[in-house]
Amino acid sequence: MEKLKLTYIGTDEWSRPVFESEEGRIFKDLNCGDGQLDLCTAGSFDGEPDTPIHYIEKYKNVEFIILGMEEQPSAEEKFNYMMLSRLQSDCDYYLGHGDRNGKNLWAGNVSEQIVKMKELYNSFNDDKKPEWITLDDILEYENKMT
Question: Which top-rank group of organisms is this from (predicted)?
Answer without folding.
Answer: Bacteria
